[in-house]
Amino acid sequence: MREPDSGLAARIQQETPISLDTSIACPPDEVLALVGPSGSGKSTVLRCIAGLNRPTRGRIVCRGEVWLDTEKGVRVAPRHRRVGMVFQSYALFPHLTAIENVMEALGDRSRATRRGEARRLLDLVHLAGLEERKPGALSGGQQQRVAVARALARDPEVLLLDEPFSAVDKATRQKLYRELAELRQKLRMPVVLVTHDLDEAILLADRLCILHRGRTLQEGAPFEILARPASVDVARLIDLRNVFEGRVIEHRASAGITRVSWGPYVLEAKYQPAFAEGETVAWAIQTAKVILHRRDRPSRGDRENPIGGGVEEFIPLGETASVAMKVDGIPELPLFMSIPLHVAARNRIALGERVTVSLLAEGIHLMPPDTGAGGA
Amino acid sequence: MDWSAFGLSLELAAWTVALLLPVGIVVGRFLAWRRFRGKGFVEAALALPLVLPPTVLGYYVLVILGDNSPIGRAYETLVGQSLVFTFQGLLVASVIVNLPFAIQPTQRAFEAVPIEVREAAACCGMSQWRILWRIELPLAWRGVLTAIVLTFAHTIGEFGVVLMVGGNIPGETKTIAIAIYDRVQALDNAAAGLMSAVLLIISLTAIGLAFAATSSIGRRNA
């Protein structure tokens, strides 16, 4: 059964063993990252696409080919779906050499043809010279490269990567990131990456799909999700620390602002008319959009949502410091910001010191109020 | 030395292994990876020959395959001869007795093949047959070899069931274990001693070869 090629589209529903009700789409040439905590169902989605799990209801179409349509009783076996799958544990065949591992995925062609093609693929993943080694004699990073070469051997219509970087050390991981970024320039297929590491997803993916408890909470470009999470649950999952409650006072379309009350303050946020005046909302701001005022030289920008308070926590993290301030009049939740260490030193930031900051209006993002149903 | 009994034992052991090897692989593989209602009962039934006295087992085989049983009658109608007290009857009994020796080691070996490795093989587009041949059997090889050796050695040494089902017909059902018993009864200790020594050497060699082969395979795969 063929349909027009629109990359990969999957709608998956099931109740057991893990509840899933989600849809994903990944055009050719795009990397989609499924991000979520353990148990969110992200690996199960990948396994359903590969045909290793059978969802109760669903439809999976890849490059115009219907792989699953429960309504019409279509269920293509895993070996007939042209997927390239890289497992979390790599799942290499331990008794075969690197080149033999790749050759097994090259179908029924002659041995010499398969050997030549496998050699080319191992070259592509920078493994030339290690062809005759068995997986046990390869490092974690090298095993991952063999797994990628084997996944590409089938000339797959979609590449599925299940937490492929979780089993290697940090230095190797950085190297493999670069290699994957380089590799995808050469590939013309949808790539679905499963990861619990948001930074990894932002680095490698064109779009993110945030999964939680088997449901898609939000899908979009990384910067879009980071700046504008759709809900408090998403904000928590992407580790947005500044999430507060407020109330919409008024919209001023002409000035492009929405005024929001927050405790004793009235904040000016960018214009967000989706929320009615008087409505209670949750609002969030990224730590980078909280700007510290310089003690020695006040600027015009200081007038933008000025907030005062005392430093409650000061944690140097490499070249930057994570600072939590207890906001005057709002004792419950601290406001977090991230500032370079030299700026902290120049402004004599220390525990108990008073500071003033500006909340950038364009960084204040409104969301429906937290219902308490989620929670990461 | 009763060479005819010795030859018959080897023939019986070879046929038993030949028939049980595919059964062990198919059933062992099935039990290793499938979950179904009543699996525990099936596994217990297949392990029964390990704990049941050979005479009890032999008795039931005799009842089931005997001339008065439906199976015995059907066989006689088809082949024209009785199943009990023949080599064929002995072979059927031997296959039943050796089921746990053929199935359990293969089942354990298939259980040890990581599920992700099999899934990866399917994602590589390999057929079921190719996955079995290229991936599963090479990884489960030690268990299969153990099954072959145990079945072979156990068949050569089997006494109770053979006596119950086959009797003691020279050239037809008189195996080396029966011949040893026969010689001891006739107070021919020299012949009994020689045959016992041959049986001991064969068993020891078979088990020793299996151990050596599996441990060297283990080292190579490590």
CATH architecture of the largest domain in chain A: 3-Layer(aba) Sandwich
Percent of residues in helices of chain A: 10-25%
CATH topology of the largest domain in chain A: Rossmann fold
For the secondary structure, the number of strands of chain B is 0
Beta-strand segment tally of chain A: 21
The name of the CATH architecture of chain B is Orthogonal Bundle
- Helix percent of chain B reads over 70%
* Principal-axes shape call of chain B: globular
- Which oligomeric form is depicted? heterodimer
Using only C-alpha atoms, the radius of gyration of chain A works out to: 25 Å
Indicate the CATH topology of chain B. Answer: MetI-like fold
Q: What is the total domain count of chain A?
A: 2
What is the H/E order of chain B? HHHHHHHHHHH
Note the overall shape of chain A.
Answer: elongated
Topology:
The complex is a heterodimer of chains A (376) and B (222).
Chain A: E1 8-14, E2 20-26, E3 31-35, H1 42-50, E4 57-62, E5 65-69, E6 74-75, E7 83-86, H2 98-103, H3 111-124, H4 140-153, E8 158-162, H5 170-186, E9 191-195, H6 198-204, E10 207-212, E11 215-220, H7 222-227, H8 232-237, E12 243-252, E13 257-262, E14 265-270, E15 280-284, E16 290-292, E17 306-317, E18 320-327, E19 330-340, H9 341-346, E20 354-359, E21 365-367
Parallel strand pairs in A: 3-9, 3-10, 7-8, 8-9
Antiparallel strand pairs in A: 1-2, 1-4, 4-5, 5-6, 10-11, 12-13, 12-15, 13-14, 15-21, 16-20, 17-18, 17-20, 18-19
Chain B: H1 3-33, H2 39-51, H3 54-65, H4 70-79, H5 87-97, H6 99-111, H7 115-123, H8 128-157, H9 160-166, H10 176-185, H11 189-221
Helix pairs in contact in B: 1-5, 1-6, 1-8, 1-10, 2-6, 3-9, 5-9, 6-8, 7-8, 8-11, 10-11
